[in-house]
């Protein structure tokens, strides 16, 4: 391992540019489309806004398409949406206060929303209502008028009070008047020169109002009463409501969403239709005599309770992912206070599973409302992937390990056994599980109580399949643990609350603790002295361990042998402007992953993900939420499927997938692919990529006459050619032949590249 490494760190973009598209064909999303916030209709097509994207449903063909940050949008966490079918313009508002303007000609990102001076509250877009070429935007400090043609803001009214600001929950435009639903009444004002002056606004009706919408009729609502009228005179609907979650007005109908039921009225207030959906609904609409609900758990639902949505996990909240032969298991848990306390999501989510065909969510997590689930890890048995175990890291009853079996026919999991880890739920908190190469299941446990010494420490678990129980052993290190990693018949355990890491040699006999050896790495071995814990570890093809701490990265060369002999860890030293610096100094390294080309994927808390060359000499990619579809710069897990080259980025805001060029790299060639091919200069200005190469590949590119135009040695399974010849000039139009051999000449491959200038 080199002590001095030249390294160029790419800085992420500071702000987005209007119209910038950060997606590409290399990206896809694994977002949840269950929680529908708004539904709009255009010529037989339903458009549904969900937390992380929009999906379109063709009523006649049943076709579903989706739009997200992976293919055009600029953000996640949608909070508002409206669409004008006449102009074909949609407006998407986000929780961070930005917007996307979606038109047939593209998507424009808007970040310059007016903010009231002195306002320090939530910037989320509460509501959007389009009328012609104008939209009224409701926020926590008032309303703004947005010009959809110019894609810029016009007037803004900041609802200032004697003690601060009043939020506009929802607002709508009727003719040239804005009606705003606030906690102190329905406010109104014509769009004129005095519009920005809040003292000139009038209170149409006093009360605490939540919703507002209009078309030919104006409708506004409290939590249990809906009013309709012509803008000056209003009457309440005769229906009594329990909890109004939305009102939607069209030319002919008023649709009211009341928790699990949708009611439809004429614009004169007469009942037309209603339907119940058996689950909480956010919104509803009435189209072609059919009631459609925007549910919280099942996407769009019609009156027959048929779910309409793109396939995806149950929820966006994700923590760790397990991959096995195109099957996925995603845990949703978390910890707080420096990995000390349990932090379950209020929705009690558990885990989600992709069975190779579709996403599945266990009914146990919906029906078992008594147990608090904070699933930190879920693993499948390599010899029977339908058998899974998950670690429930909670400080409540239900703490422990669960064994479940997947029923392929029922598309559900059945609980086989629950293994409680303690009756005192402050102790013995399971954190991670893993199978070794012999299919032995072992795990890590935090705050394991030691009866002999009446003390707490980190610990390990081993599953005794014959007795169907878990055995535990205390480790001579304190407190909690991370998910273990098996390497060279040892279990490597990061310890996030102490400057230590453990390599646990269980002598290939996990149920016999008597001869086991614990190797402890500390700051005396080179871990950062200012670190409070180790967080992640991965191993590369050179037998080096890449250890992520909460204050930087360390490398343990020849890890499998040197860990036993007072090892010395090395920081990665980079050179910035001629000055040597430590790579990722003081950065919390959440995850390190090594792909089949020996490249390193590194997640830095708050800094996105880096792709490093095999020896760390170069940054090949730096992916952030600003320049990629990744939802947030804190990526809790990265996993590479080496068979497909897909890289999974897991965050609490959802999962996205990047198709890398490194696919199942070995000493021989794989499926060699050249793209784009043909290369048409008018359409493409970048590099030609050749993938499916051997670990080391000798490349010669010649023209039709056999003249050498380019040669290189590629490492890591792929190569990029800039289409220049040996003299640095772009090659002429024609067909070029790629001649390739692996390192020892035992395998060969050829390809053709057509160039059209």
TrEMBL record:
- Which SUPFAM superfamilies does the UniProt entry name for this protein? Calcium-dependent phosphotriesterase, NHL repeat
InterPro entries (UniProt xref): PorZ_N (IPR048954), Secre_tail (IPR026444), WD40/YVTN_repeat-like_dom_sf (IPR015943)
Could you tell me the keywords of this UniProt record? Signal
Q: Which stretches make up the PorZ N-terminal beta-propeller domain? A: 48-191
A Pfam entry, by short name: PorZ_N_b_propeller
Gene3D superfamilies reported for this sequence: 2.60.40.4070, YVTN repeat-like/Quinoprotein amine dehydrogenase
Listed NCBIfam families: Por_Secre_tail
- What's the protein name? T9SS type A sorting domain-containing protein
User: What species is this protein from?
Assistant: Marnyiella aurantia
């Amino acid at each position: 391992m080199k002590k001095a490494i030249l390294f160029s760190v790419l800085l992420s973009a500071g702000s987005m540019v209007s119209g910038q598209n950060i997606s590409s064909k290399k990206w896809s999303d694994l977002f949840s489309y269950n929680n529908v916030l708004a539904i709009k209709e255009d010529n037989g097509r339903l458009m549904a806004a969900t937390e992380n994207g929009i999906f379109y449903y063709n009523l006649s063909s049943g076709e579903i398409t989706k739009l997200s940050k992976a293919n055009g949008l600029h953000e996640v966490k949608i909070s508002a949406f409206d669409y004008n079918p006449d102009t074909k313009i949609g407006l998407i508002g986000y929780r961070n206060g930005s917007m996307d303007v979606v038109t047939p000609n593209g998507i424009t990102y808007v970040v310059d929303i007016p903010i009231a001076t002195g306002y320090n509250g939530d910037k989320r877009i509460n509501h959007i209502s389009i009328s012609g070429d104008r939209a009224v935007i409701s926020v926590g400090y008032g309303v703004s008028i947005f010009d959809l043609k110019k894609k810029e803001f016009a007037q803004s009214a900041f609802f200032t009070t004697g003690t601060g600001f009043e939020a506009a929950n929802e607002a709508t435009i009727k003719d040239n008047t804005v009606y705003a639903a606030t906690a102190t009444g329905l406010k109104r004002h014509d769009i004129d020169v005095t519009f920005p002056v809040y003292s000139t606004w009038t209170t149409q009706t006093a009360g605490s109002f939540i919703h507002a919408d209009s078309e030919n009729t104006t409708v506004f609502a409290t939590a249990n009463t809906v009013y309709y009228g012509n803008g000056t005179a209003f009457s309440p609907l005769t229906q009594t409501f329990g909890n109004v979650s939305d009102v939607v007005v069209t030319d002919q109908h008023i649709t009211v969403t009341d928790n699990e039921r949708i009611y439809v009225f004429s614009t004169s207030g007469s009942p037309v239709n209603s339907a119940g959906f058996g689950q909480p609904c956010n919104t509803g609409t009435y189209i072609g005599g059919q009631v459609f609900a925007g549910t919280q758990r099942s996407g769009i639902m019609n009156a027959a309770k048929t779910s309409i949505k793109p396939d995806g996990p149950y929820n966006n909240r994700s923590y760790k992912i397990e991959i096995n032969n195109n099957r996925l298991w995603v845990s949703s848990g978390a910890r707080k206070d420096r990995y000390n306390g349990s932090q379950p999501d209020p929705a009690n989510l558990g885990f989600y599973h992709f069975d190779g065909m579709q996403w599945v969510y266990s009914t146990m997590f919906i029906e078992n409302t008594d147990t608090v689930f904070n699933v930190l890890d879920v693993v499948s048995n390599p010899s029977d992937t339908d058998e899974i175990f998950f670690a429930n890291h909670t400080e409540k009853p239900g703490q422990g390990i669960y064994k479940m079996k997947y029923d392929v026919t029922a598309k559900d999991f059945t609980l086989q056994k629950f293994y409680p880890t303690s009756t005192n739920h402050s102790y013995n908190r399971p954190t991670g599980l893993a199978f070794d190469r012999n299919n032995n299941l072992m795990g890590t446990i935090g705050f394991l109580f030691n009866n002999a010494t009446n003390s707490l420490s980190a610990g390990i678990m081993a599953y005794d399949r014959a007795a169907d129980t878990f055995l535990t052993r205390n480790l001579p290190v304190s407190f909690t643990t991370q998910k273990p990693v098996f390497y060279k018949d040892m279990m490597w355990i990061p310890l996030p609350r102490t400057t230590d890491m453990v390599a646990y040699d269980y002598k290939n006999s996990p149920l016999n603790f008597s001869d086991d050896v614990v190797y402890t790495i500390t700051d005396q071995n080179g871990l950062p002295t200012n670190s409070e814990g180790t967080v992640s570890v991965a191993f590369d093809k050179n037998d080096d361990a890449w250890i992520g701490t909460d204050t930087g990265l360390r490398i343990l060369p020849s890890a499998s042998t040197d860990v036993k002999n007072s090892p010395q860890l090395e920081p990665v030293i980079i050179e910035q402007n001629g000055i040597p610096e430590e790579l990722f100094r003081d950065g919390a390294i959440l995850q390190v992953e090594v792909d089949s080309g020996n490249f390193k994927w590194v997640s830095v808390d708050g800094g996105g993900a880096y792709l490093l060359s095999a020896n760390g000499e170069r940054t090949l990619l730096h992916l952030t939420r600003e320049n990629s579809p990744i939802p947030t710069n804190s990526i809790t897990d990265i996993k590479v499927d080496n068979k497909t080259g897909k890289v999974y980025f897991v965050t609490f805001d959802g999962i996205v997938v990047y198709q890398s060029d490194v696919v199942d790299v070995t000493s021989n060639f794989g499926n060699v692919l050249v793209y784009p091919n043909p290369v048409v200069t008018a359409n493409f200005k970048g590099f030609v990529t050749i993938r499916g190469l051997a670990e080391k590949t000798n490349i010669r590119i010649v023209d039709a006459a056999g003249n050498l135009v380019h040669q290189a040695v590629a490492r890591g399974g792929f190569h990029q050619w800039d289409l220049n010849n040996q003299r640095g000039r772009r090659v002429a139009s024609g067909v070029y032949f790629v001649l390739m051999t692996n390192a020892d000449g035992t395998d060969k491959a050829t390809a053709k590249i057509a160039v059209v200038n």
